[in-house]
Structure formats: structure tokens, C-alpha cells
Amino acid sequence: YQTIDLIITPILLSNSETRHQYVNKAFLKQIGYSIEDIPDQNAWFNCVYPEADYRAEVKESWFNVVGAAQRKGDTHAHMVAKLFCADGSYKWFDVHENVYGNNKVVTFLDVDELVENYEELTDALKQKDILLSIIAHDVRSPLANIRQVVNEYKELDLSEAEITAIFSGMGTQIDYIFNIINSLLVRTSADRGSFIEKREKIVLKTFFSKYQDYYRERIEEQNIVFDFDLSNADKINFDPFILDVISRNLIDNAIKYSPDGGIITVSFNESKNLAELVIKDMGPGMSQIQSERILNNQGSRRLKNQITDSFGLGLIMAKEILEKHNGRLSIQSELGKGTSFVIQILKN
Asked: Residue 210 and residue 179: Cα distance in Å, rounded?
């Protein structure tokens, strides 16, 4: 006992019947339970896994690991798990059990910082993947239009005025693509590889007016009306790139499902703690199942990172990025009565 008290790794000793016999000083310091708190394995599970569902999950996993080791004749088993410590904190430990005759030595390696760093890295990579998916989704349509003009210009019998109009439209789309790419590059740190949020005051009427030019061809083809129910006083403190990514996906979806002659309305409401933008269309609406698919992130990505044009992809991406930046997307829809997408942003 004096020897293991010198070891800086938490150690718990037990017999073959899982009656606990001793915990060293490092165990008392890092995990906090005395031998009286955890006299046996059952008491241990109840202390360090107070949530019943998680406790049942960990117990099943642990017994599976130990059983597999025994079947192979191995005296060692280990598993990473999150423990509820005596001071009320949760920490991740790599738990190792070694059997020596009728005794067991259980050691606990503190990997809490490693797990947190891993989760942060995973989150950053996921966020980067979302952003790149959005960019790919958004630039594909204008690039397809430009490619079509380039491939077919010889067969088109166009007047000089029509050619000027086409190239003007192409220029607008190219400028928009560069704006998207440059905005992403400016806000991406080469060292961190994650998105850097930059909030500023956005005048909403000015901000949304650009979409009339960007979607002009589509809205004229479908005879759609944009109704910006916004005043010059309507402002929001948010990152313009993030708002642009979200709004383009929602407006693109609204145009896609609007009937000929439909109206797309953009309105704004705010309270003391919440700013709310509403993009409403007159489309066929969505069923509750469709809405839940969007809100539960169940989209049309057949494989990881695969982009398709199937229903809901842009909406899911908009929802995911909004949730990363102090916001939430909600859907108000009914079949046959259109859909309202509500961008809710908490004020700082």
C-alpha cells in the first residue's frame, strides 16, 4: 500500500469477487471516492455513473470487454469512459484492469484533456466540412450556367444587345462566386483550420436586396415577386458571411418550390434577447415528417461529403451552420399552404 501511494496514477485494488480493498492517494486526489464510498463493483458503478442509461451502457461494454479478454486467456482489459468524480466534475479516464491470481489492479489514466482536444478538433473538421459543402453547393449552379453559355454560344444566333446582356449576367455570377470564395478565405485561419466569426452591423434591407440581382433570371422565369418587408432601421449584429450562406440556401429553396407568380416574403422581428428573420414562400409546403427530417439533420447525403440536389440538403447545411453560431432554424409549414423558415439569432 505504501508503494502504490507513491504512484501518481490512480489505482484501485480488489479481490476476485470485486470487493474493493484499497485506493491510493492519487485515486483520492483525482477521483475522490474513499474505499468506504465504493466497497464493491456495484457501488462503484452507481457512484461514477449516476445516469442510469449511461451506467447500463458502460456496464454492458465493460463486461463485454472483460469477457472477450477472458475467452482469449488474457488477464488485461481496458476501456475509455467518462467518470463522475466526487467533486461533482466529469472526467474521461482510460481504465485498465489487470488480474494477478485472485487480485485485480485497476488503474485510471486521466485522458480528459486529450478527449476534449479530440472533440474540439472533430468539431472544427466537421464545421469546415459543412462550410466546404455549402460553398460547393452554392457555386455549382452559376458555374453550370456559365458552362452552358460557353458550350453553346456558337449555335446561338444572338444580337449584340443579347450578347451584352448574357455576358453581363455571367459577370455578375462570376463576381458572386469570387465573393463567396474570398469571404471564406478571409475568415479561415491557416493555423486552426476553423471558421473565424466576425460580427458587424448589417442593414437587412440593403443586405437582402442583392438577391434580386443574383436570382434575377430564375425569378423572372417563374414570375416570382420578392417582397422585402424590411425598413432601413432593421439591423442585426451578425457575421454577414454566415447570414449570406444561410439566406442563400433558404431563398434558393423558396424559389425552387414556389409556383409561377408566387411571392417570397422576407420579414424581421426582434425582442430584447432575440432577432428573428422569416423567409416565407407560397410553395406546396412540407409535411411534419419532412420538417422533422430537416430539423433532425436527416438529409440526402448518401456518402460522407457527397453533395446531391435532393430535397433538404441546403436547409440542413443552413441549420447546422446557424446552430454553430448562436442561432437556431425553425420551420413553420403546412401542406398546400407554403413554408416559413425562421432564422433565430440570440443577441449578445
From this structure: 12
DSSP string, 32-81: ---TTT-SBHHHHHHHH--SHHHHHHHHHHHHHHHHHHHHTT-SEEEEEE
**Dihedral of the CA atoms 233, 234, 236, 242 (nearest 10)?**
-130
pTM of the model: 0.51
Distance CA 59, CA 41 (A): 10
Residue in 212, 290, 221, 299 with CA at minimum distance from that of residue 251:
212
- 299-327, pLDDT tens digit by residue? 433 333 333 333 455 566 667 777 877 88
Give me 56's grid cell. 447500463
**Mean pLDDT (the chain, rounded):** 82
* Grid cell in block for residue 193: 483550420
Alpha-carbon distance of 104 to 44, in angstroms, equals 15
277/112 Cα distance (integer angstroms): 40
Quote the strand ranges of 235-313, DSSP E.
235-238, 263-270, 274-281
At 110 the three-state DSSP class reads: strand
